[in-house]
Structure formats: structure tokens, C-alpha cells
Amino acid sequence: MAHPAAPPAASHWSDAPLAWRDRLLGSARFRRWAQAFAPTRWIARRRAAQVFDLVAGFVYSQVLLACVQLRLFDLLLAQGPQTLAALALRLNLPPAGAQRLVMAAVSLRLLEARPSAGGDRRYGLGPLGAPLAGNAGLAAMVEHHAALYRDLADPLALLRGEAAQGRLAGFWPYAGTGSPGALPTPQVAAYSALMAASQPLVAEQVLQAYPLQRHRRLLDVGGGDGAFACTAGRHAPALHVQVFDLPGVVARAAQRFEQAGLAARCSALGGDFFRDELPAGADLVTLLRVVHDHDDERVLRLLRAVRRALAEGGRLLLAEPLADTPGAEAMGHAYFGFYLLAMGRGQPRSEARLRELLAETGFTRVRRLPTPLPLQASVLLADAA
Known about the structure:
Elements: H1 15-25, H2 28-36, H3 38-69, H4 72-79, E1 82-83, H5 84-91, H6 95-107, E2 111-114, E3 122-125, H7 136-151, H8 155-159, H9 167-171, H10 185-209, E4 217-221, H11 227-235, E5 240-245, H12 247-250, H13 253-259, E6 266-270, E7 284-288, H14 296-309, E8 315-320, H15 329-343, H16 351-360, E9 363-369, E10 378-384
Parallel strand pairs: 4-5, 4-7, 5-6, 7-8
Antiparallel strand pairs: 1-3, 2-3, 8-10, 9-10
Helix pairs in contact: 2-3, 3-7, 5-6, 7-10, 10-11
């Protein structure tokens, strides 16, 4: 396929040495030498393993999916290490299939072999499987990714805009309609349930990063069916919390508040935050995993609406994974870049880009608050001027 001519890029002094490096690393002769030479052998092996992990990543994810679908981690947490024969019986798998899955999970450190007083080897939770045991939010996210993998079957069609609307776009229906406020409750139930199940992952980071007790009224924009509102209400006993989200989404919030015993301090209002004015008077507004779902134009519109709604001296707390997170760089542009492309709307952003958007909409004193696990969420705090 012939590529259209592109204007030449401006040269840089580093081009020549980097071109030499690329030719060297691409040379089969050099690779053979590096693999045989003792001082460089460990580097060659590590790079080869990293490349293979990129090739095999989908298979690894399917091993994880099978374990989650079978509730294998929960089983081992509840009943302790099991033999292969016992696992085959409990998982309703043929012995050969159980062995294949267990050996794969051991290699990925999801499971590990355990000592046994008898002759049969037992298998228990590994260091990467243990955090998944009993974690409904992580399990829901893993199972949800089946839709994403189907949409990524032809990545070139996705990149060229030639792919038909996929499963992920259907899962997040607001991304593909101009009238999200008209979406009925049944159509938004699936994604609302996923957001509620995974909300503790973000809520934990937010509550450890910032004391909500210093505020009197919180407006959680895009707060779904009130999962974070309940967490915030329990965390700060004097705080009044209001959720603003699509009418079909917040329909179940009142029931959640009633069941949590928080109906006196927690409420919900339905609307479209791109078209309707936000409730005014809160001294803290939260946007949790909301901004990266939308393009810059929509984000600017939303931030201006938040600023108008905030009380004098109020603050905005914005939490989501950032594209430039140290140690998790692939999470931003690789994972979220393609996830949001398949979803049909949104883009990953760096802290610097979010600071620009906040400044453009009149927010000041933007600072990043440290979180225990930035991979799950980073937190930016900004003041309304």
C-alpha cells in the first residue's frame, strides 16, 4: 500500500545517534552477540521477554478472565489451597482443562503451588491473584473487558474510523447519542452497575488524598447511582451530598441512600450536565472518572458549569487516571487511548493538559494531591477564582 507523501519533519541533533541505535538493535548479528556476551545477556533476555509479553498479552488476559468467571480466586480464599482433582470438580472442568488453567495461572503468579502433607500438590492464591479475591469491583472490570477485546479485533479499522459501532459503545450509550438525558433506566443499568461496583477503587484513593470533613456541601457531578455519595456521607458525618447525573442513572440513587441510612443528607437530581445548569451552592464539586470520557470542547463546557455552580471560595476535586503517571505510562495512552476510542468518545490527558483546561475556565491554585495508587486515580484540586 502506497503512503501519501508527508512534509518532512524538522531534524534534531539526536537523530543520527538514535538512528545508529535503532540499526544496532534491529541487527540480528548484534542480537546474537548480545545474547552470548555475559555482561549484556540479562538485558537481551529481559527485552526478549518484554516483547513476548506484548505478543502474548491477550492470552494472559483471557487466563485472568477464565479465573474470574469461574470465581476461582474467591473459592481459594474461602476454602484454602486445593488439589487439581478438587478444583476440576468444583469448577466443573475436565481434569485436563483444570490443569491447563491452573498451570497458566501459576505462571502468571495468579496462583501458586503450596506444600502438601500428602502426595497430591495443592494450589492456592498467588501474589497477583490474592488482591482479586473478594473484590467485586475488579472482577466486574475484568469481565467487562470482553466487550473491549471484541472491538479491538480489527484495530486498524478502529483507527481509521471504519469500524461499525461496537459492543463497548453500546455498553456506554451516552457516548453515542446527542440526547443522553432521554436514555431510559434499563438502557443505562449495565454501565451504572459497573461504575458502582468499581467505585470503591477510586473512592479509597480520593478519601486518603483529601479530607472531605472540611466541607459542608458536596456536589458529585456524574456521580451515577450514588455509590461515591454514600461513601462520602459515611466518611464525613456532617457533609450534605447531592448527585447530579442523567435521569435514568440517578433513578436508583434514592433507594441506595435510604438503604444506607443517609437519605437525610444525600439526594440526587437528574439532568444533562452539558445542557442543564448544575445545582448551585456546593463548596466542593467532585468529578470522578468523568473528564476523560469527553473531548476538550465538552470538558471546557463542563468545567465552566462547575465554576458557575460553586459557592464563593469553593473547590473542584477531579480524580481519574492520568496519561503521564510515572511507572504506569502504558495505562494512559495505550490502554485508555484505545479504550476510549472503542467507546466512541473521550481521550486520555496528562496533568499538564488538565491544568491548561482548568486555567482556561478560571480555576486557580491547581495542585496534584498524592494518592496511594496513582494507577487507579490521581487527584487534582483547584480553587474557584
